Amino acid sequence: MTYSQKYAIASTLFIRREKNEALPLKRRNIEQLITTLINHKDNTKKSDKTLQAIQRVGQAVNLAVGRFVKVGEAIANENWDLKEEINIACIEAKQAGETIAALTDISSLNHPESDGQITIFTDKTGVIKAARLLLSSVTKVLLLADRVVIKQIITSRNKVLATMERLEKVNSFQEFVQIFSQFGNEMVEFAHLTGDRQNDLKDEKKKAKMAAARAVLEKCTMMLLTASKTCLRHPNCESAHKNKEGVFDRMKVALDKVIEIVTDCKPSGETDISSVSIFTGIKEFKMNIEALRENLYFQSKENLSVTLEVILERTEDFTDSAYTSHEHRERILELSTQARLELQQLLSVWIQSQSNKTKSIAEELELTVLKISHSLNELKKELHRTATQLAADLLKSHADHVVLKALKLTGVEGNLEGLAEYACKLSEQKEQLVEVCRLLRHISGTEPLEITCVHAEETFQVTGQQIISAAETLTLHPSSKIAKENLDVFCEAWESQIGDMSTLLREINDVFEGRRGEKLSNNANPKSLKSDKPDAEEQAKIAKLGLKLGLLTSDANCEIKKWEDQENEIVRNGRNMSSMAYSLYLFTRGEGPLRTSQDLIHQLELKDDDKLMLLLEINKLIPFCHQLQTVTKTPLQNQVFLKVDKCITKTRSVMAILVQLLSLCYKLLKKLENNRWVSVTNKDSVDGKT
């Protein structure tokens, strides 16, 4: 069991009740329990039912604390530097739990011989002291366990960085394969630790930042593989090295960002994203002017004027944009002017109300507050319409990915002029997408969505440049299969981000129109949906399996590309299996054609004809294919993610064998061709002699 798993167990203890219910042992639960017990009136008649309930709760607290202490002691035994502190806190928690159990042990309270017994009814002070000790000791253990988790994440990051440095300097393909295998395992461990941490975070803003950083690392792992292989294949190609360096740089930034989040240490000079959001500024401004109703001296005149000017200056991102239509630009400017005029009117009435506190002045102040609030709401609507319409139009125009297809074609043709033309078009497309992401950030409505907009902006900015460098490498080496594969990987990342932007746009609209969270409530059976949702451990396990499956898919594709006869039956079946496995990998990232767990299970139900053809050719796959089919057809009620886990595990086993078989079949095919050539040559020689 990892530290993070133990920490999760420790931070979500459960007191078992009747009817198999569960109550998390958190600070508020303990406070509610103690408050209820000490507020019980001494002169109230105590029924047997009440006494039994009190005793049951006290014992449950003690049992839960006992489980908590066991986890704490296990963490202490594995961390000698914190062992003494954790053990002391565990002893205090255990003592407090036992005290509460003893004070609530009132089974014999109504018997004559129990007159001198100390209970919760005779020693309320003792209960309060025990409760305080329990809360402080539990909090201390959790804080110390948290330090252990942070230390483990930092150690894991350092291991990843050290291996990355070795990968940057590697010169031989064989050495690269060995080091990358180690790197893959370290990245899986890091992904698991940070995934647990992300689920534990309570701050939605930090959670969104962690999700963005982890997404970068996950996607860059595949990019690093192909970019590094391209560099090794073409060591003197400048664009290949530029492409590879871009991946390494982005991964290092993302690793640093994760550490900033878990240690809560921002680098000096970093600005808060919320300070550049127009919607956040409008929300704060409205709160300030509405506070004038209660306190006329709450704000200064200058502060309100400056705050509004800052908001209106930020609208210049919309009015100065080359992509904003003339009608939208005019309407934004009109509403900005109106807001300035209404603020002047508000300030005038406000000054009057400070000296003349009459009913009519108060009503006029209320009216001016409502007017400027209405104008700002109209401005918000116009900004929202402008940004979302631009985004929707842009996504629609780039849905077919014409420029990416053209870059791939010019690459394999070695067409440098075509490369220059389409690289320019992609740069224009990139600038449009970056600009729209900035506008969406202003109107996103929540901090997590603002962070997602920033992530999208950075992804388009970086990936656009990397696609161009990858396309340049392919154009200079048009027959290079690895250069083509590398370009494909970066193009897939671009297409994936376009898909993510569509989801982001939908979420921004949901927030603006107040529809956020309606999907679950509108479902006919929300309970069944809830039971299908994976917990943190299941998500981490699926993500880990998916990453390994993605790497195996890349290995399989490399073996397939070695075959000269791409229509060979083994190659065709291998390609189909590789494609299916890649779909599963995309599913674990929330991407690709498989949208639900049921889609994934159907994907693995092979047609009988295809299955027989494959099994007849490759006998070694029979057991695994049989097991895979059994898993897909076995009903597991309310355990869909267990089924997904098994499906991916079995597919991984199949892919591992497939990689070996493709390599072996390729060698045998070459050997057979050589034998045929020798046979034909010998026959010709004999005929000549005859």
Automatic annotation (TrEMBL):
The keyword Cytoplasm is annotated on this UniProt entry? yes
* Record's keyword terms, sorted: Cytoplasm, Cytoskeleton, Phosphoprotein
InterPro entries assigned:
Alpha-catenin/vinculin-like_sf, CTNNAL1, Vinculin/catenin
- SUPFAM superfamilies for this protein: alpha-catenin/vinculin-like (SSF47220)
The protein's predominant localisation is: cytoplasm
Please, one GO biological process term? cell adhesion
Q: Where in the cell is it found?
A: Cytoplasm, Cytoskeleton
Q: Which GO terms describe its molecular function?
A: actin filament binding
- A GO cellular component annotation in the UniProt record: cytosol
Cytoplasm as a keyword of this entry, yes or no, is yes
Q: Which family does it belong to?
A: Belongs to the vinculin/alpha-catenin family.
Record's function text: May modulate the Rho pathway signaling by providing a scaffold for the Lbc Rho guanine nucleotide exchange factor (ARHGEF1).
- What name does this protein carry? Alpha-catulin
Q: Which organism is it from?
A: Ursus maritimus
